[in-house]
Write a structure and sequence with these properties.
Elements lengths: L10 H20 L7 H8 L3 H8 L2 H13 L11 H17 L1 H12 L3 H24 L7 H18 L6 H14 L5
Amino acid sequence: MTIKESVRPGGRSARVQEAVHRAVRKLQATKPREALSVPQVAHEAGVTPSTIYRRWGNLAELLADVSLERLRPDGEPPQTGSLAGDLQAWGEQYLDDMTSLPGQSMLSDIMASAERERRQRCYHYSKDVMTCLRERAMRRGEAAPSVEALVDGVIAPMTYRLLYDVDTATSERLALWIAQTLSHGDASD
């Protein structure tokens, strides 16, 4: 099974997607997730329920799509002057977002998706951030582990904790993962 809308659509398709996503966000702000339905979202968005079913298949996939869009990085990660500092600043912001109730709901939505490609886009978002931070560090003349080493050493344990033991996804652990990765990571890519 593949995601029907793997790239951002244009024209009418983009307007429909934006209207439906906006409707989901609005409804999520006013009622519990369990109370949401495709007909409610369709009504709020001004589309027919069949439009939602045709495009997303079901409510769970729609919620996962909206959550994935929220996880897309807005811009470049913070700059602190060092790779360790940049990783810590970005990671603390990410942990703040993902340990919140809305953040935990977004992660749950995405992990519940039957669309493997949707979950892989989360990986690519994280990989893009690590690439940005690594390239920035290298321009400053810092030695930097490979992007894969950063993903494996920082993103992987953070994601595991966020999914399975959120109370242990802390800034202190993040600092430890960063220190271990920077001291053991290879400098090639």
